[in-house]
Design goal:
By secondary structure, the protein is mostly helical. The chain has eleven helices and no strands. The chain has one domain. Helix 6 packs antiparallel against helix 7, helix 6 packs parallel to helix 8 and helix 7 runs antiparallel to helix 8. The chain is globular. The two termini are about 15 Å apart.
Length: about 230
């Protein structure tokens, strides 16, 4: 078991070094995907350059409504988490792990991220990121790379099975495009699905519990042993 833990920990450190050195930031990835989409449209679909650029521009602006909804959600979450009571709570919570056992800090951060994500994805993104400095300050021996990864466990695991999951909420909304598509299009479902059949279904709740437990075990194993 100890050998397996060392193997997984070494693998995590190797992947971290590779990512830090070779993986570009999100803006570069966005531009690369944009160029790839334009090339595929021209070479694969036979579209002209002018037509492709216009389609890209029109498609981008059509997403502004959705982007504004996400922006408001993020700003509201930031305002809540940055309040004075929240600041004091985060500082108190970050002091709970044993300083001599930094793996506890990483597990706490992952659990915090997933609990918040279950209730709201936007709050999880903001609250987890803001919680990292508190935990790092109170637990200087904890691996900062793993703490940052643990802060996004909520978004990576449980959020869409939680109360702000987009698909379950859309399916529970009467008149949604899945059950009431545009004229001439067959509906994919003949009725809307209440959240009791999706989010609060026993299968979903058990699934979220198992995924959360596995994720926490993995971050604990990935923590470098010399600092654990």
């Amino acid at each position: 078991m100890a050998a397996l833990i060392r193997l997984v920990g070494n693998l995590g450190e190797t992947l971290s070094r590779f990512t830090q050195r070779w993986i570009p930031d999100s803006w570069v990835v966005c531009m690369m995907l944009t160029v790839l989409a334009i090339l595929l449209a021209i070479l694969g679909a036979g579209a002209g350059l002018n037509e492709t650029v216009l389609a890209w521009g029109g498609g981008m602006w059509s997403l502004l409504e959705l982007a504004m909804q996400f922006t408001i959600a993020m700003i509201a979450a930031h305002a809540c988490v940055s309040s004075r009571p929240a600041y004091r709570f985060l500082d108190w919570l970050a002091s709970r792990p044993d300083v001599a056992k930094p793996v506890q800090a990483v597990v706490l951060l992952g659990a915090y991220s997933m609990v918040i994500a279950y209730f709201n994805w936007a709050a999880s993104v903001v609250a987890s990121a803001l919680f990292v400095p508190f935990v790092a300050k109170r637990n200087p021996k904890a691996d900062i790379r793993l703490m940052i990864a643990a802060a996004y466990l909520g978004i990576g695991t449980v959020w869409h099975g939680g109360l702000s999951g987009s698909a379950p909420l859309i399916l529970a909304t009467p008149g949604n495009p899945i059950t009431t598509p545009p004229p001439g299009t067959e509906p994919l479902l003949d009725r809307f699905l209440p959240v009791t059949e999706t989010l609060f279904n026993s299968f979903n709740l058990i699934y979220l519990t198992v995924v959360a437990a596995v994720a926490l075990v993995m971050v604990a194993i990935l923590h470098p042993r010399q600092n654990a």
